[in-house]
Amino acid sequence: MKKAGFLLILLLLVATVFPANKNDDFSRAIAYYLIGDLDLAKKNLDAFFTYRPQPTLKLGFVLLFQNEKWEAAKKFRDYLESNHRSLEALTGISLATADMKNSLALDNLNKILRMNPGFAPAYLCLGNEYFLRDNFPAAAENFNRSLKYAAIPEFKILLAELFLKTAQPQQALDLMRPEAEAAPGNYYFTFMAARACLLLDDCPEADAFIDRALKLKPDAQSAQLLKGQYLLKTGELRKAKALLSKLKFTVYNPEYSLTYAEVLQKLNDRGAEKYLYEVFSQSQWDAGVNKLLGLFNVKKKNANVQNWINRAILGGQDSQRLQREFPAAFNFPTYHFSAIFSVKKIQWLANRRILVAGIVNSGEKEKLLVLDADSLKTIKSFEYEGTIQQFFPSRRLDKVIFSTTAVDNEKVYLYTLIPRSNSYILKPVIGYALKMPTVLAAFNDSGTEAYFTDGSLAELAFLSPFSTVAAYGRKVSVYPKYPFPVYSYTYSNDRWAEIRNREFLRRVPLPLLQKYLMVADACQNNPEIAKLVNKGENINITASEEMKIHFGSAPDHFLIHFSDLKNAFQAW
């Protein structure tokens, strides 16, 4: 009896531990997929499905790893029809829809966690989604939760990447060094430790970590680049050049180009200029390339060195460090700055004020900031719904209207910023979202009234097929009857009204609306023009033929241009 009880307990232990080990294979597969190592992802996924044969689900992941995301999503949906609570299928569909720039991936991952709050891969995928959206606090929170629910060392690789992204190399090293020592055969643990180590001034292990990573993966370009950066840091420029000159990336790599440019520049190599301007063309305010271009022009004895120094400081270079690298004849000014995580839009205001829409700290909602132009101190800040689209300033720059994308698709909110005493107030132009994807706005000359219409006007009215889609998919021509509403807003009494009178539309100061009316009038008054526009209306949006309406600098003429993309010689 005792023996039977012992066997029963043993079987129960095996039954509880065994699935956890197989779930670890799935977790590792997801981690390596997010890292970008599809071979290791497939290896761990095969191990998972060896003990849990699910052909449809596995095929979904195979398609996902082949970057066939649409087909993968369909397979995951098929599987969910028979097993709607499959955490693995929901994870797969969230990864397949991750590039769609909407909330679908987040919704599926949160659905998983409602069903099983301890499912670690969902937290890992959530952390990666937030990382890609630059919401670093939310990314860190979810990466840490994934580690709380599963002791998968590979999860730490993504957290270490976050630490490096947010300028925390010591935390990345503290996280990766124990894993690199515990599993010396794992390339990623060693490589991440090497990256963190190289960013620190007092880490003697950098070279050993880099060499071990190269021994594990001799052909890894990222590790070779890291070795080149180490040789540059230690002053072994000839070796760095020999190594970096052999590297060939399939896509533009700014880190490589900047590193190689610096090596060539320090060696007085003629090839430095090409790489410097290559990086500059891609990122004109990169502090590193502006500094290097300054040093390059010092050697060339050009007169524009001070400009590059100023740009390097504005890009974030420390002025005191620059002083040690440049001749004393140059100035190293100190500029005021405002710490804003992400700037979306900037607009000058009157009285030396600057209007900025952006995210002050990672993970926060967008805000509207009024800054003093001299000190860049925040005078006033406001919150608003949605994400910023466009600023529309008055002629005097005392008032601004701006539009934001609403939470609901195809709608916009409208706000106006108004001066009040020595400050500003922000208020909605109207209390609800307009059913427009974008908006055009303009003030009258005195700034007492503002006018609005649909921002789709330019792409619909001046490019074939000169039509919009009404309810039930019905195609509606935009000529000669204006298809969009036009509104006015009066500041003195907050009056919002729709303008229906066509003659009054001619006085609305929206340039695109006036261009539209010019073409519409021409269609009514000139049968030949009406015939041309009608020809454009019959061109399918997917056709090789295309008709455009172009406007000159004068407000009284336009040109209708027809072309056939398949026949370069046919146009009129």
3D structure, described in words:
The chain has 572 residues and is α+β, with helices and mostly antiparallel strands. The chain has 3 domains: 22-249, Serine Threonine Protein Phosphatase 5, Tetratricopeptide repeat (Alpha Horseshoe); 337-435; 439-572, no CATH class. The protein contains 23 helices and 17 strands. The strands form 5 sheets. A 4-stranded antiparallel β-sheet has the order 1-2-3-4, with no helix packed on it. The chain has a 4-stranded antiparallel β-sheet with strand order 5-6-7-8, with no helix packed on it. It has a 4-stranded antiparallel β-sheet with strand order 9-10-13-14, with no helix packed on it. A hairpin with a 6-residue loop joins strand 15 (545-551) and strand 16. Helix 22 crosses helix 23 (527-537). The longest helix is centred in the N-terminal third of the chain and has 34 residues, at 2-35. The radius of gyration is 30 Å and the shape is globular.
